[in-house]
Amino acid sequence: MSIMGTRVVRVEDPVFLTRGATYTDDLTDERLTGALHLTLVRSPIAHATITSIDVSAAREAPGVVAVLTGEDIDLPAPLLFPGANKAMVRPWLATERVRFVGEPVAAVLTEGRYQGPDAAELVEVDYEPLPAVVDVHASATDEVLLFPDAGTNTAAVYNKEDPDPDFFADCEVVVTRDIVNQRVAAASLETRAASAVWGDDGRCTLFCSNQNAQGARDEVAGWLGVDASQIHVVLPDVGGGFGAKIGADPEFGLVAWLARHTGRPVRWSESRSENMTGMVQGRDQRQTITIGGSRDGRVKAYRLDVVADAGAYPRLGVFLPVFTRMMAPGTYDIEKVDSRARVVVTNTTSTAAYRGAGRPEATAAIERAMDLFAAEIGMDPAEVRKINVVPPEKFPFTTKGGAEYDSGEYAKAIDLALEASDYAGLRAEQKARRERGDAKLLGIGVSSYVEITGGGAFAENASIEVHPDGSALIWTGTSPHGQGHATAWAMLASDQLGIPVEKITVRHGDTDQVPEGGGTMGSRSLQTGGVAVHKASLELIDLAKQRAADILEASVEDLEVDTANAAIVVRGAPGSPTVTFAQLAEREELKVKTVWDGKKPTFPFGSHVAVVEVDTETGKVTVERIWAVDDAGPVLNPLLCEGQRHGGIAQGIAQALLEEVVYDPDGQPLTATFADYGFPSAAELPSFDLVPMETPTPINPLGFKGIGEAGTIGSTPAVQSAVIDALAHLGIRHIDMPTTPLRVWEAIQNAVKEDG
Amino acid sequence: MTGVKVEITVNGRSTTDEVEPRLLLAHYLRENVGLKATNIGCDTTSCGACTVLLDGESVKSCTVLAVQADQLAVTTMEGLAGESGDSLDHPVTAAFRQEHGLQCGFCTPGMVMAVAGLIAENPDLDERAVREGLEGNLCRCTGYHNIVRAALVAAGKDPDAAQAAEAESDAARTAPGFSAGSSEGAGA
Fold first, then answer.
1. DSSP for B55-111?
2. What does the domain layout of chain B look like in residue ranges?
């Protein structure tokens, strides 16, 4: 029986559950012996000119080896997003102006860990406050410029054409609404960390917590002005990323530079409050949605206008509206789709990818629009969706957003979710409660979604080597940080070669061992790196057959793999001589390297039904159940796949109900610790009901699509919709996320007032 | 800096050191004893990644000073791994593996110790009790679904039955018709 599709427990776990994983801050690597500890002095003010920095007292503090300011650093300031305005560079350490709370101003290097914060407190910085720009619409006016040399706060504009005033002319019904897709924090449990040491050979070894070793290497090398071959990036175990650990952080460059400057290894590991202002954040789009159609439920035109917040220094967040625009029509076959986006800088933490990265924003917008349209024409929201989804016979389907959807059965996914949840029963109960005048009302939300995975880099490499002892090594350019690639990639090779999973080791995240690779992001790994491992396995078999042909005195065409014995045998000739992969490896190195290039992304899809209970007296929302259909093609390991869905659903629910990074009008972050940020615990969440559905993609031979972000994309709109749905009979059509008790209670009060 | 001598039994072994009075137990375990499983994920006692047992009771070791643990016994996740240091025989760690109760692994050492502490306090757990008992331990990867299952398994419960019971109790409140498989609803 094939190992594919079975619940293989993770090979990663025995270490993780005994002595624990080894994260960057856990390293006891001897090269880091005697390392200096870096503590960064960070700006407490969002927008200000720096009038003076006095480091003299700090330099005298116990254990201090050096205190540096930006003037000590002889490196050009990095442009963190290549396409951004060249004036929008981020200084290594700010010297003239600070642009967000948390921006590094001085670097303190100490012998001991605890001495750093002590000395950092002695650094005296005088700030002359400037008006802070926090709101994106205020930023777009350019009244206060963050970068006077740039002459504008706009970092990017996508689609400069004026909107067609007659776009909705043939629609019977048109609904429009301003909505917020709020800023959230990735909040990986491991904060950012990096350690660097330069060897006698002039190379830097940089240990860091990241999702892509090769990308981080190239960026840091570029910043330091050295050849990429001089930077050796090693990723120890990584304690979660969720998109926020894509790309090197400027702190990594600083750590590497400081190690070179001082001639000693340097370690840096940030605190959580530093992380909540220093690490990139996600989402943050102000959207205007307009939807038009006919009263029979057919949507004819949809427009999405986005103003996105890049934060103070443009990073990947500047690009993400490209995905939002591409995925704007969602699962629907809409005749006319129009979208535009502007990205502006503000005096806040930079934005970049967060689980879904541009696609959840698109899904949340179109799903809100469908709900508003359904409410306007008085039709069931599930029904409206089913009328408008792309039918199966239209695949591959090129959308008005410019995407080519590979495969999908969107109506079937909705039906599966409706059936699993007994949708009709839920509606009946909702009605009964309203009629009884219950204080606790039921809300039901339905989402239909499609997303894009592997949308960044379509190709990935894999190498496999079998050893004389029968074990095997896989090298992959993907970079797991919880996903379980060591288990999954071993399963893919084991399936073809017959080598047991426990005898296969997977190497990743070390740029000397794997010089090329796209890392793990955008749910790309299985459909690129995983398929590459499959392809490498087949090529290894070809190589083995060629070598076995001589030994077994048979033609290559007559040979096959006996997976029970990890051997090459002559087909249909039981008892004849065989040769194992291990025996072949004894004679000569048995290793292949290959690249799989799918050339295209894939488009997983699904449907979620969420049921919430809304306490109308307090505004408190409780998620009671959520049924999720997440179709990403065939499932390699249900245990891992379900884990990805669970985590995604939880994060999606959290955005709908709880989480928001909040800044006050002066740009002060009000959610800079885990005591203030709405990170959900087990007590706020239910168990999740996962409904299976598997529609393969034709893009790769195994039919795999990505599953990492799907849960997040489907659950947010379902839960938000459910909250609003609970109150629909009061005339409430929209409540912005997060739908906190205060917002829900206020919506109820306003509705009751208007009614009265 | 004035050092204070502490003697702390860690995973059954006696440890001693001169420490700064402000040294956190979490840092004592990681830096002075060299046990790195215990992680630090926040600075507000919110995340629980640093949870250990102190004389059998689960505490957040970032909120305990090393000097407060003087003469007491600490158990970290390493302490569940037996003499060899690689045993997965402990019911809690075994259940976490079986139920895929971990992904990136950062919350895991604290989560495992919190579950061990929870079961020691009350072995008769249901899903709700597990969820409320783990409120002080944050996980960003798993959505808690499989952590809850692991805790139930470690407590000797059938996780499928426990989750079904919790869903039923929700259903009884939200949609009585649903749990009975009918679509008539209730009380209309």
1. TTEEEETTSSBGGGGTT-EEE-GGGGSTTTS----SHHHHHHHHTT--SS-SSHHHH
2. 4-171
- Nearest CB partner across the interface for B104, out of A114, A186, A240: A240
Which residues of chain A form CATH 3.30.365.10?
281-453+601-755, 455-597
Residue type, A617: E
CB distance from B26 to chain A under 8 Å? no
Edge to edge, the sheet with strand A472-476 lists A504-507, A472-476, A459-466, A590-597
**B4-171, superfamily in CATH?**
Beta-grasp domain (3.10.20.30)
Residue A703 has, within 13 A of its CA and on its CB side, a CA count of: 13
Q: Does B176 touch chain A (CB under 8 A)?
A: yes
Q: Which residue has the tokens 């029968």?
A: A470
Rounded to whole angstroms, the Cα distance separating B145 from A643 reads: 8
Crossing angle (nearest 10°) for helices B145-154 and B91-98: 140
Q: What are the angstrom distances between the C-alpha of A469 and each of A472, A547, A685?
A: 9, 18, 47
Q: Is B71 an interface residue toward A (CB < 8 Å)?
A: no
Domain A455-597 falls in which CATH fold? Aldehyde Oxidoreductase; domain 4 (3.30.365)
**Confidence (pLDDT) at A586:** 98
Mean pLDDT within B119-125: 94
Considering only CB atoms, A624 lies closest to which of B37, B106, B174, namely B174
Predicted local distance difference test score (pLDDT) of residue B1: 56
B20, B103, B183 member nearest A643 (Cβ): B103
Q: Which two tokens stand for residue A87?
A: 């004036």
Q: How far apart are CA B43 and CA A585, in angstroms?
A: 52
> Cβ(A577)–Cβ(A416) under 8 Å?
no
Q: Which two tokens stand for residue A508?
A: 């990743």
**d(C-alpha A515, C-alpha A517), whole Å:** 7
Q: Which residue of A has its CA nearest to B93?
A: A17
User: Is A281-453+601-755 CATH 3.90.1640.30?
Assistant: no
Place of tokens 């792309």: A390
pLDDT of residue A756: 58
By residue count, chain A amounts to: 756
The ipTM, to two decimals, is 0.97
Q: Which residues of B touch A189 (CB under 8 A)?
A: 39, 41, 47, 49, 104, 106-107, 138-141
Per-residue pLDDT, averaged over A237-241, amounts to 98
Distance of residue A71 Cα from the nearest chain B Cα, in angstroms: 31
Chain A residues within an 8 Å CB radius of B30: 26
Question: Please, are residues A196 and A375 in contact by the beta-carbon 8 Å criterion?
Answer: no
**What value does the mean pLDDT take over residues A397-405?**
94
Given pLDDT bands bounded at 50, 70 and 90, which one contains residue A401? confident
What value does the mean pLDDT take over residues A562-568? 97
Largest pairwise CA distance in chain A: 93
CB A443 within 8 A of CB A711: no
Which of A687, A690, A719 has the highest number of chain B CBs within 10 A, making it the mutation to test binding with B? A687
Q: Is B82 left (phi over 0), alpha (psi -120 to 50) or beta?
A: left
Provide the 3-class DSSP secondary structure of residue A614.
Answer: strand
| Tens-digit pLDDT profile for residues A316-350 | 999 999 999 999 999 999 999 999 999 999 999 99
Mutate to test the interface with B, among A10, A237, A429, A436 (most CBs of B within 10 A): A429
Only one residue has tokens 């002590």, namely A118
